[in-house]
Amino acid sequence: MPTTDAPFEAPADDGLWQAGWYRFAKALRSPNFGPRPATAPTDLVVLHSISLPPGVYGGDAVQQLFTNRLDWDAHPYFASIRGLAVSSHFYVRRNGELWQFVSCDDRAWHAGVSSWRGRGNCNDDSIGIELEGLEGQLFEEPQYETLASLCAALAQHYPIAFIAGHEHIAPGRKQDPGAGFDWRLLREQLGWNPQMFPAQVVQR
User: Fold this and answer.
1) Cα separation of 179 and 187, whole Å?
2) Quick check: helix, strand or coil at residue 171?
3) What is the rounded distance in angstroms from the CA atom of residue 87 to the CA atom of residue 65?
4) Residue 35: inside a domain
5) Host domain of residue 159
6) pTM higher than 0.85, yes or no?
7) Structural domains in the chain (count)
8) What is the C-alpha separation between 115 and 111, in angstroms, rounded?
9) Is 132 a residue of the active site?
10) Which of 9, 97, 130, 188 is flagged as catalytic?
11) What are 90-138's pLDDT values in tens digits?
12) Does residue 1 lie in a domain region?
């Protein structure tokens, strides 16, 4: 779906949203963001998985990474990502706790080199949601509950037309959230049109 030439206007604030910040998320502002292109509609949700170090849950390493405060010497794995400047709009802990780092009206740095439905640079028009987990492993029930509620709230406030995993917008480069993510459950919880999902997950 190509972008139009009409400027995109951020939606008006309501009871759930204020300047792109979600009422039910814990706000921790990241410096890693920028403006969206003027004509980019915020119509794509991209799902990721993350844990630091990989497979280790709990702690605040992810929050530190997204706010450029991670101690690169605190764990041997961190040396491999030293200096990385990234962010996501949201982060869902294993217990369902929700954090927000970037206003949804702004462009977070979560997708990298990517393309979906004929459009590249998915950071421009997407909202990134990180799930605490490891690609290929299972996620927790509270995470699905929080994710479904968040996606429903996003769709009420933004023109969400698509949802995909990082693995779908950057195939061959990324594998998250991976085979352990239950797309069928999320589809059932949201009740969205199957055309909004990647064809690969609709067929499961």
Assistant:
1) 15
2) strand
3) 8
4) yes
5) 17-202
6) yes
7) 1
8) 9
9) no
10) 130
11) 999 999 999 999 999 999 999 999 999 999 999 999 999 999 999 999 9
12) no
